Inverse folding.
């Protein structure tokens, strides 16, 4: 069976991946790869992709890649550059135009609202994580503020870099949330234009941009079902089957 690699490019946001990864780890071993960008480095998705390629260079077989947000964009770009190295691709909160993400949503709000950075981040945090209490919003503001610096995004107040849209060669699962303001329905369902018979799309009704933190069990089941179609010998988690069937 191929390796399963979670691709992360947002160190400050990895807390929101833990529940899903812990659940998936009941079935398969998930390797966690993370890109760290130092403050003196230029922001570059390409550099993250190159480092991921170096990491996977010694892997004898193709791998299953999955990621959320900008981490998902890194996985997507790698899959397009090296399709023979990727068995399947799972993208969470990734738009068909990959440059559309929470960073672009933030900068659009910053340009349109007469408020400072902290106030806009507080508003964006509440929108990305609906129903969060004040304490959680405060924590999310801090995490998002760091992600604007740490993640390899090409966005800035003066430039919103929207990457080209297209499909991929390997089986693809795209997931999102109906109430995610950063990745609206057209940005998510635009993927279906490029779908093959092996591709799937799934959305939760709630959860916002970090829906995988809220609905981790249901999402884990969806991902496992997708993987099982690619790897027929893979067994689903029995607990998840009993709970969700």
């Amino acid at each position: 069976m191929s390796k399963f690699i979670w691709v992360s490019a947002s160190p400050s946001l990895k807390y929101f991946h833990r529940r899903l990864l812990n659940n998936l780890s009941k079935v398969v071993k998930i390797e966690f790869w993370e890109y760290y960008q130092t403050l003196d480095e230029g922001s570059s998705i390409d550099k993250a992709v190159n480092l991921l390629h170096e990491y996977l260079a010694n892997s004898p077989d193709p791998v299953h890649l999955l990621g959320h947000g900008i981490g998902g964009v890194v996985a997507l770009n790698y899959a397009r550059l090296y399709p023979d190295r990727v068995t399947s691709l799972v993208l969470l909160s990734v738009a068909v135009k990959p440059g559309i993400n929470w960073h672009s949503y933030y900068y659009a709000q910053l340009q349109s609202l007469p408020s400072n950075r902290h106030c806009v981040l507080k508003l964006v945090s509440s929108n990305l994580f609906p129903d969060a209490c004040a304490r959680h919003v405060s924590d999310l503001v801090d995490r998002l503020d760091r992600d604007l610096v740490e993640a390899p995004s090409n966005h800035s107040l003066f430039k919103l870099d929207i990457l080209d849209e297209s499909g991929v060669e390997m089986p693809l699962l795209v997931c999102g949330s109906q109430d995610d303001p950063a990745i609206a329905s057209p940005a998510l369902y635009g993927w279906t234009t490029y779908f093959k018979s092996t591709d799937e799309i799934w959305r939760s009704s709630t959860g916002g941009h970090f829906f995988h933190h809220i609905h981790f069990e249901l999402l884990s089941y969806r991902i496992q079902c997708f993987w099982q179609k690619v790897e027929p010998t893979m067994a689903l988690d029995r607990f998840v089957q009993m709970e969700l069937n």
The chain has ten helices and six strands. The chain has two domains: 3-97+164-244, 102-150. Residues 218 and 244 are 7 Å apart (CA to CA).
